[in-house]
Amino acid sequence: MLSHSESRLEAPRAASLAVSKKLFPRPIPRAMTAYAMDVDHLLIAEEPLKELEERALAKGEVEVAEQGDTYVLRLPRSSTRSTG
Question: Which of 29, 40, 43, 54 is the most exposed place for a label (fewest CB within 10 A)?
């Protein structure tokens, strides 16, 4: 089992989520942070959050692209958790 300092958030193949822009009151950043809280829950935040940094099993950077009236969030392929 990996320690928190070695935890990785990976998508074996390119994984992405398409989300309507109508769900957001303002434009979202081009990069966000994904936190794996457990096997069923992935949280995506606009900026690093201390509480999530301390509780998450792993984290990674999410790239955001626009396609018409949709945001496409590309999940991390391989990122390590920060312990700082």
Answer: 40
Q: 67 burial class (0-12, 13-18, 19+ CB within 10 angstroms)?
A: exposed
The residues facing 34 across adjacent strands are 44, 60
Does the pTM surpass 0.85? The reply is no
Cα 34 to Cα 69: distance, rounded to the nearest angstrom: 22
Question: Quick one: 60 exposed, middle or buried, by C-beta within 10 A (0-12, 13-18, 19+)?
Answer: buried
User: Residue 82: is its pLDDT beyond 90?
Assistant: no
53: DSSP letter: H
Quote the pLDDT of residue 54: 93
- Per the CB < 8 A criterion, the answer to whether 9 and 79 are in contact is yes
Name the DSSP class of 81: -
